[in-house]
Amino acid sequence: MRIPFDELKQHFKRVLTALNFNPNKAEACADIFAANSRDGVYSHGLNRFPTFVEYIKKGFVKPDAEPSLLNTFGAVEQWNGNFGPGMLNARFCMSRAMQLAEINGIGCVAIKNTNHWMRGGTYGLQAAEAGYIGICFTNTIANLPPWGGTQPRLGNNPLVIAVPHNDEPVLLDMAMSQYAMGKLQLYKAQNKPLPQPGGYDNEGNLTTDASAILESQRALPIGFWKGSGLSLVLDMLATLLSGGQSTAAITNAGKAESGVSQVFIAIKTDADRNRSLINEILTYTKSDNSGQEISYPGENMMRTRDQSLKEGVWVDEEIWEKVKGM
């Protein structure tokens, strides 16, 4: 079913206000959750909201917490998220990175003791829509076996790169697993096969069955060994730059996915000057004569957004009824 964007947002705000979020924070969090579903990232919009509420009730997410500055090294800063809402900490960090970039040309803000940021692309878009190149990444709980292994020892550690481009930024937002965990959960709930194999079953066979992959805990890394290696170094960078917890420490703490480490980078750029270069790259990429439609990262998101605003945001009816009853 589809519902109006504002209605979705108001129910999120109502629930968060009842959980002792102040009005401004409730509004900001509600807007991010609703915008994620609006843009088609349902796994980190409505579908993720009940888990966020659960984490608040368990004390993993502290509604009143604010980030605090730990260290500054010119264009690089370290912050403590103090276990506040991950989306608000992330939005603050990218804003601060842009402020540093305005002075230095580049700004890097690393944060420890924060929580799940939901859709990482939110903060890439935040930078790109303000005219900056945005790069950000996070570590996670262990949910991805290293290449050659069978047990989760790496996080799927999402990486985001956003480039300003007219009103439709180029937005790469990807996990290091072939399918993000939220996407696997979505396919499982819909009882649909994955378009391509996304991991292994308990017998070690590649499969398109999301349920089997979640049960075996053997998701497939992107690019096989290359994705495994990239996941490892992203965890290292997030941990070292923030001074926070690694995937190993987060997992061994046994407190679900809380206390993660994240990095936000903003690079000052001249979007007007670069417009022709970006258009050249995109036009050449799309000139493939296979007859198939070629889209750049983030292009289909804008189409989904337009449809959601015109026709309503797609929601899973069961989860929607659950949220309305909170």
UniProtKB/TrEMBL annotation:
It comes from the Bacteria. PANTHER family: 2,3-DIKETO-L-GULONATE REDUCTASE, OXIDOREDUCTASE-RELATED. The lineage of its organism: Bacteria, Pseudomonadati, Bacteroidota, Sphingobacteriia, Sphingobacteriales. This is 3-dehydro-L-gulonate 2-dehydrogenase. Its EC number is 1.1.1.130. Coiled coil: none annotated. NCBIfam families: PRK13260.1. The keyword Flavoprotein does not apply. InterPro entries: Mal/L-sulf/L-lact_DH-like_ah (IPR043144), Mal/L-sulf/L-lact_DH-like_NADP (IPR043143), Mal/L-sulfo/L-lacto_DH-like_sf (IPR036111), Malate/L-lactate_DH-like (IPR003767).
